[in-house]
Design brief:
Layout: H1 8-19, E1 25-33, E2 51-52, E3 59-60, H2 68-82, E4 88-90, H3 101-109, E5 128-130, E6 132-137, H4 144-154, E7 163-173, E8 176-177, H5 191-210, E9 216-222, H6 223-256, H7 262-287, H8 294-322, H9 327-355, H10 362-392, H11 394-398, H12 446-456, H13 458-476, H14 494-506, H15 508-511, E10 514-519, H16 523-526, H17 529-552, E11 564-565, E12 569-570, E13 573-574, E14 580-581, E15 584-585, H18 587-592, H19 595-603, E16 610-615, H20 624-636, E17 657-659
Antiparallel strand pairs: 1-7, 1-9, 2-3, 4-5, 6-7, 7-8, 10-16, 10-17, 11-16, 12-13, 14-15
Helix pairs in contact: 2-5, 6-8, 7-8, 7-10, 8-9, 8-10, 9-10, 17-20
Length: 660
Amino acid sequence: VEPPYGSESEAAKITYAENFPPEPVTLVALLSTNQRNAPNQTLINADAEMQLELLPPFFSYNPEGDLTAETESISLDLKKRVQPYLELVEWPADVASGQQAGEASAERGSTSVRASGVPAPPPSPAQLKPKCEFNFYSFFDMPFEVQMVAHSFLFPSNFGGQEGMIAVHLVSCYGHAIYKECVYKHEWFCEPVAELLESWAGYREWRMEEFPESPVDLTFVSYPVVYEDIIMGIEWGMALSTVATILAFIVLAIMLRNIRQLGLVACNILTGIGTTLLIMYPVSYYVMDVNVCAPAMLVAVALAMSIDYSLFLLTRFNEERLDGRSITQSLEIALATQGHTIVVSGATLALCFTSMLVLPTSTITSMAAGAATAVLQSVLVSLSLTPALLLTMPRFFTADRMLGLTLDGTPFGTYRRASSGTVAQFGATIDRPTIIENPQPKKESIWAHLGRCSQRGAPVMFLFLALVMVPFAMALTRFSYVEDLTPLMQTTHPATKAFISISNIYGQDLTTPVQLLIMAPSQKAMASREWSLATCHMLQDLATKVTDRMHEEGHDYTMTTADFNGLMIFRGGCLADGLKFGVIDVMPAVHMYGMYDMVADLLSNRNQTATQVYVHCQVDLFSEVGEAWMRAVRASLPRPEVIRQPLGGHQDADSANYVP
């Protein structure tokens, strides 16, 4: 899903890509209280607060709940399955060039042996590096000073401590950044990610078998799993298209009364799909990003149009042949009549799809381009390939005795149907008409009879159609407005259920986060306390400006400083001034245990010149108020051209660049 062309979102994405590697992939383990086995029991006490004590360290924090021990045991088991991927190993010598998986795995799989048969010396410690960079985030691995800060996010209090999560940031393997699509693309450096996903899935299945009465439910979700779910859904859609094609061929055989002509339809379908893919491949490579659903839509359109247009043309062709006209005459009439219908129909559909190209998003334009190309190719193939094949093998495709299940019209055929003074029907040339003695009047087709009856009983037919619409109208009431990946996912897949659960529990901040990309003037400035304070004050002032703009537009929305979370601001306060709970400043503990540095590595680029700030929207981001909020945030941000002189050796917040 790409942002609209020329939009501020596209500019922000380009700027982000210039400063940051691909965003780390997150593997989430969702923990939930099993209401059937342990009703109303809590994983932790989400309402626990810091208590002041008389003795050092003068405060305490006890988050233990009903199922804390069980939950902590699961956390330890999951962590054990992450540890093997953090071990020091010798990287492949050609890791920088990205050698293919087979060569790389061969080097990793066994100890190298010299030509003389003597094993190579073991690598020096300097040559050993961690296989992968995975960051494991569990509430139970954190010191209690940090737990007080993290519990509200990992175990939301509005769910009473009955829902929680454990997360792993999959940053890189063998020096290559992990990205969301690398697993189903079978990138060699993503093998450890696929192995970890399988390991956690195996652990979940083992728990379900060994502890069927467990009070804690465990599910997993990550973007590699979600993308695999989407791809599987598309493959199922393609399989259903194949099944529908078989049914359509059965109907075609009944309508055409000649199974041989189904070969013409099959050639049309294969040629139409093949030529469309040949056109769309360079388009996807050089022109635009193509949505993952575009190929499925392309194939479906090509199938439908090829079958439809073939039915038009061949039905009229066969009717003219039954009237005794030659193959050439029948084909000319079919092209003059049904060919006109095919061109008008195809042009109308192609125009409708092409009009979607004006929409400024590749999600729709790529699907529109694929569908329009498929329609045009179906028209061209139907009006060129079908007549060419009919004229190339006229006797074969017009032999319809026993639905074409004979050897008539082939070198092995012996059946000839002729009468005195006539030309044998299956031995005639394509320019010789077949003379039919005593032609019988045409019988009225069932469709004409149905149309006449429906016209006579128009009121009854109207009532019948209205009743047929009722179940479809009732189904519309169950539709909901969704702006994420859910419509692309399979409804019954476990990843879909886990994705929806995470969305319901943690909201859009986790599934569709809003981020500010803040670029510092230099690495030194970004590390300074002054720049941190100035940026924090800018964000606090931004909340006030957004609130004023929203009120001016008539929206009852108040943005607070607590809606920003980053390296310089948390819970509305500036971290340069400390992170206080009551009178206790826990910021020294956050630094001492390395938690701040870990978060800084995630939110900042490698050059330490840019960082991200997560912004919370209090309403549905895709609602009318949410869209107004987004416009207000963008309009209130300091522009890059607003630059002031350095103050006291440091630049203030307005001297940095802010990109939403």
